[in-house]
Design brief:
The protein is built from 4 helices and 7 strands, in the order αααβββββαββ. The chain is an alpha+beta fold and about 250 residues long.
Amino acid sequence: MKKLTKGFTLVELLVVIGILGILMGALFPAINGAMLSAKTNAMAMSGRNLFNGIMQGNIDRIQSGRESLWPKKNSATTSDGSDDIAEKTWNDADSYFDELFGMASYGTSDWDNDKWIDVDIKHVSGPGVPTYKGNKTLKGCVAWKVVTDLTDDMPDVLPVLVSRNLDTSTFAVSGEKNTIGETKRLTMGKDFAEPFGSKACVIIHKGGGATVHKARYATLADIYEKQSISFPSSVQISYLEPSKSN
């Protein structure tokens, strides 16, 4: 006698598929939120590594009487013919990071001495931003905007590294700015879709703190931690941006 094996009917399969669809729909926002948090936290750590590398490099430079590694738009230094990074000015983040990491000599025996910081080059990139593949430039791989003309007497809440998807055009750059009442949401994802589009951004502050701001909480009041900003007289900063194309 043959043993009969009963399988699932079409109706039963459709019911199971429907239940799975409902569960996936309910869990999808939570999964997306967890993935976004993981990515922003990872980039915040990369930003801290970059920041710490620059600050450690500055400590070494102070001991030898040299100026800061932070980029300048306008240099007051008179060049003596040296190739020191402090004697150069920058118009974009790609060129600055190329110099900071000594990309002109990448892959040669001189590279270790030509780098201005001892940081893994992968920290320049971020989620959705191509990682470095061995070229002589970091163009196309830079996920950060970087402040220019930074001085020690500027406030610790000042953003110094900003994930490139955040619009910095309304940031405080000179004089005094009361950001406490600035509650209009900042623009994200307009010029750069990566790393987080219009969903979130990462800020590294002059004091070393790293903050992640979801879109609904990304206002100037939030970025500057509900503090007013005051710059020394005759000082104006800006933010160098990466290239918009590879």
